[in-house]
């Protein structure tokens, strides 16, 4: 084990940073993230085509998200056992073929099963693709690498309503999946060319008890979060979430004592990685609620059309993209701690200001506020994505990457579930009488307060946290001048 890890470390140090590889992996992430939410806009059309209630179609989204969540924990072992290149290419192929099966589905059952297969491919694409990029990236270039990997998670939730609505309106819901075919084929061919070959470890054993407990725990938590947002009145959401938490606790206890655990939990001893699991989890949870809350407030609260709301929400996308070239210089100039504190405080402020919006607020001001919100969101995402690996040693990289991907998936689902729960709470309290947007205002204010919890965690970070990554890469050494001959000695001809 130690010999293999040293070999990995030496091989990684010799590899060069590859922007094209990072861009390829980011593109596959975008497909996976987009397909997690894009189907929402097509539910009425699918319902009509299959002659089933619209509420029943939600099972296709739940099946996809659940499969992705429970498939992530085993992805790290698969990459180690069979080689990251082989598993990544297989994941792209499965995702692409399953997308075709989704488009050809003639009933809800077939579509749901096809979405499960699609989710299985997505569950391997995200963590294994990240692992491929991280292994070939030196610490000094980690900020640049994560800048590529962060944008799919930022843009997909914002663009999904626009892209899904356009495809469904002007073509058909089938094109939501058909568009993945040329993209998937191109990604597969590019992966064969760009992803470095790595030999698998045939002796790597699978921790079956750890896998069972982790998969059960993650699955139960995801189901609980889904039930909390769709059926909050029943007891099953709480029961499922509690069972999931208990199973994950059992998994942790087991893996601490196992000789060959599924994850190396020593990664949590690293403060910069632990920041992703504490303040970073809260940050992603609150940020993930915005693409859910904004369209609802604009349509149900302000009475805007879906197109009007979609265009306004696109301002978040503009902020994400606009600030992206500046995120790396900002982190290098001020450090991770300062940027994380700033991003969380600024995001909390934008949440509070969103609660003050009304239909009479000038559109320019609303648009500008959402652009700023997208910019702060991008800074925070980029900072957490980089700082979590800043002090991770090569031997722990696979475990750190898989644990991170699992927590990101849970935080994203928790953001939507918590937002939906807050809307129902404030609606039931009647805190904003005579205001259709009142429950959404309350939800935004609550999210602003919750965001401050991530600020506290960031304030407690060491001053120079992640300095090995945030420092600029050293410039190539200049050619040394030829030594002058010693004084009083004639130069050699």
TrEMBL record:
Membrane topology label: Multi-pass membrane protein
Keywords recorded for this protein, A-Z: Cell membrane, Membrane, Transmembrane, Transmembrane helix, Transport
Occurrences of domain Major facilitator superfamily (MFS) profile (ranges): 21-466
Subcellular location: Cell membrane
GO molecular function per UniProt: transmembrane transporter activity
Pfam families referenced in this protein's UniProt entry, alphabetically: MFS_1
Basic and acidic residues bias locations: 484-493
Region of interest called Disordered, as start-end residue ranges on this chain: 467-493
Transmembrane segments: 21-43, 63-80, 87-106, 112-134, 146-167, 173-196, 208-228, 234-254, 275-298, 304-323, 335-358, 364-387, 399-423, 443-461
Entry protein name: Drug resistance transporter, EmrB/QacA subfamily
